[in-house]
Design goal:
Elements lengths: L6 E5 L3 H12 L3 E5 L16 E2 L9 H12 L1 H4 L1 E2 L9 H9 L3 H29 L10 E5 L2 H15 L5 E5 H7 L12 E5 L3 E2 L2 H14 L4 E3 L4 E7 L2 E7 L2 E4 L2 E4 L20 E11 L8 E4 L4 E6 L2 E10 L7 H14 L11 E9 L6 E4 L5 E5 L5 H17 L1
Parallel strand pairs: 1-2, 1-13, 2-9, 4-17, 5-15, 13-20
Antiparallel strand pairs: 3-8, 5-7, 6-7, 10-11, 11-12, 14-17, 14-18, 15-16, 16-17, 19-20
Helix pairs in contact: 1-8, 1-10, 5-10
């Protein structure tokens, strides 16, 4: 039986599930997606920062470990709230994560991320040409703001690593930052300089998901079942026969898990490649565009937040809160808005109430997703992309197909 006679059932219609479905549909599979929400991308893919940076480093690093005490003492300043790692239930994840923070492990993990991200870039550009979908994509670049001279010195080391592996990272001074991005000229944040990424891109992940779902249903005749919760995996010997769902049974030839934090509970114990997953909550605010919107997306490393233009809106995104609680904390919203206004006072109409959103990033200790066979002959996984799902989705779908074809 070749791929053109096979039905692939994908659990999850976020950016990773849709990307996986698209790649399999291109290969000739009949594709069915099962999504518990009422439309695609209502989870972690919905209102993220939109960044498409193809040369970046893993979260677990010597500097992250070094700064962890400061982070625990001053979480509001640094935007990382890691107190939950002290809870016994999270100790296995924390212990594994610490093991990934050595210089060698950071480099190994980062190189794997860079490879996968660059596969996404190639696949995304091809997809854009083939289907002409509009998702507020722009390729003007990005600037990463550094607060102190010491930060600039550290940034140069990172930039050198990225340049050695295909990146285009240039460390520049304060004046060059203001020339490149006029929206920073009235900033009251400390700016010693920055790292300029000329080839960075940006796009609205949610809008892309909506359009890609349309491509799947219209061009490839894919089936997408919304408001359907997967309750159990039905097994026959070493195969998956069907999914038991809230609306009946769904059968298929192969099954792929592309779920977030909670959906991975369906994975069988026999899956040897299973990694611990923890939810890392992010917060975003979406404003109407202001009088001086940025052309570049900008990351403030001291405040751990991003300001970016997506079409006629400004997206402010920040925080890494180790938590499984999606509730919106108004103090966090207020502080994030205050920091964004200080960085780019005229970028957005800050007088308007923003659309606030939270999402849980499914974070593995090594920052690398699980891709491949998942315990049964016809069960696969493509999940655990952390904060980089938008950057890695299409690249991980390429790797998934390779695993299926092995």
């Amino acid at each position: 039986m070749n791929s053109r006679n096979k039905n692939a059932v994908i659990i999850g219609a976020g950016i990773v599930g849709l990307s996986s479905a698209y790649r399999l549909a291109c290969e000739g599979y009949d594709v069915t997606l099962v999504e518990q929400e009422s439309e695609p991308a209502l989870g972690t893919s919905h209102a993220n920062a939109g960044q498409l940076i193809y040369n970046f480093g893993a979260m677990g690093s010597p500097s992250f470990l070094k700064n962890l005490p400061k982070t625990l003492l001053h979480p509001s300043r640094h935007g990382v709230i890691a107190a939950a790692l002290c809870h016994p239930k999270n100790w296995p994840w924390a212990a594994s994560f610490i093991g990934q923070c050595s210089p060698q492990q950071w480099q190994n993990n980062s190189l794997k991320l860079i490879k996968m991200a660059n596969r996404t870039r190639e696949a995304l550009h091809t997809l854009k040409e083939q289907h002409d979908i509009d998702f507020n994509w722009r390729g003007e670049g990005k600037i990463i703001i550094h607060e102190t001279e010491a930060d600039l010195i550290a940034a140069e080391k990172t930039a050198e690593f990225q340049r050695n592996h295909g990146g285009n990272h240039q460390v520049i001074g304060r004046n060059e930052c203001l020339e490149l991005e006029p929206a920073l000229k009235e900033s009251t944040r400390k700016i010693a300089g920055g790292t300029y990424l000329a080839d960075a891109e940006i796009g609205d992940c949610n809008l892309f998901c909506q359009k890609l779902a349309g491509v799947l249903t219209n061009k490839f005749k894919a089936k997408i079942h919304y408001d359907v919760k997967v309750e159990a995996i039905i097994r026959e010997k070493n195969q998956i026969a069907a999914l038991k769902t809230s609306k009946g049974m769904i059968d298929g030839d192969i099954f792929i898990m592309c779920t977030g934090v909670n959906g991975l509970k369906l994975l069988p114990d026999s899956f040897a490649g299973k990694k611990p997953i923890i939810g890392v909550k992010g917060i975003s605010l979406t404003y109407p565009i202001g009088n001086c919107p940025p052309n570049l997306s900008a990351t403030d490393t001291a405040g751990k937040f991003v300001v970016a233009r997506l079409g006629d809106q400004i997206r402010v995104a920040g925080y890494a809160i180790f938590s499984d609680n999606l509730a919106i904390n108004r103090k966090h919203v207020s502080l994030l808005a205050k920091k964004a206004k200080a960085l780019m006072p005229e970028a957005a109409n800050y007088d308007e109430d923003p659309v606030a959103w939270t999402g849980l990033r499914p974070q593995t200790p090594d920052d690398l997703p699980m891709i491949g066979k998942a315990g049964f002959e016809n069960l696969y996984i493509n999940a655990g992309h952390g904060s980089s799902g938008w950057i890695l989705a299409l690249g991980s779908a390429e790797e998934l197909l390779e695993k299926i074809n092995e």
